[in-house]
């Protein structure tokens, strides 16, 4: 079905004939695709029995609970109130899910083109409260979707504009969301996570919350949702920020956005409309990023679909956000996600495992612990606990500022 839609999207045909001398207006018909998730998906979107952890994506921590994305499938809910014995509480089936974030017991997650809004209730029930439909249009144009879950409606509209506007806008339009089928001529005159009950996300997140706004990124866009009315978010702004966008990380009044070709910094002086401040370009590689008041830490890795051959940690001075400066690069095996607490820096180094480093001297970051625990992908350090996602398990550690680290428990995928 995707191929059919893309073929139709690329179809542009113009039929134009008239013997009238004054040709100032064009009337044309557009057919715009609107996508919506089927009702059966919404009915099923609630906390159900636990499911096997398989193909995990990013995760967040909230109120002693891990909320873990199962790529394009849903969200696992794991209670770690007792970190030595975590309990899998259940699974929320959400087809097409890639991101999530939580504030004040309201969970936001994407379901293909829609934004789902859940209420986390006492007693562990989690129920869908609202759906913001047809929000993530780019999801439909950039990847496959299952027609068992998504339906398409074609909206038809006749529109008349000046010929000058038509020629400048539509004849030069690239990858427009409108489908122009016919025209005719008529005569006429000449925008780590803050507090306030907000989840802590990982460096590989695509959703994040800062104060009263939810921010999401996809391959090329930054979306800003007002969540002042928590159960009824409003999309206030979508802006194109580049290509191959991968991650988003908040720190105070800034957003740090990782892409395969660079790190972008946006200011939240106007939270509804984040303002571009700068970009630090690098070779084409995968690029998670975290930051603090003075420095940004960017891991670059080869492999996967990212291209490039660099495998390193870049440390940037960001005191002047309009002009980030590379201070030093440190070699690693194949670094993925990272997290920092004080001077303790955690780096998931792919098949080389988890590295625990001393970042007190930014020009001389030294690895203090190297744990060969399998392929390490992502990590969040919070309140002396480190939650490490591996290819085949999740491990919970305790640690201190002297770089001592102790395994508390392991959650196996199967």
| Beta-strand percentage range | over 45%
Number of helices: 4
Please list the strands of the largest sheet in the order they lie side by side: 5-4-3-2-12
Helix content: under 10%
Secondary-structure-derived class: mainly beta
Please give the number of β-strands.
Answer: 32
Mean pLDDT, to the nearest integer, reads 83
Biggest sheet, open or closed, and with what strands and sense?
5 strands, antiparallel
Which stretches are low in confidence, meaning pLDDT under 50 for 5 or more residues running? 1-22, 168-196
Write down the overall geometry: globular
Multimerization status: single chain
Beginning-to-end CA distance, first to last residue: 33 Å
Walk me through this protein's architecture.
The protein has 414 residues and is mainly beta. The chain has four helices and 32 strands. It has a domain of 190 residues. The radius of gyration is 24 Å and the shape is globular. The two termini are 33 Å apart.
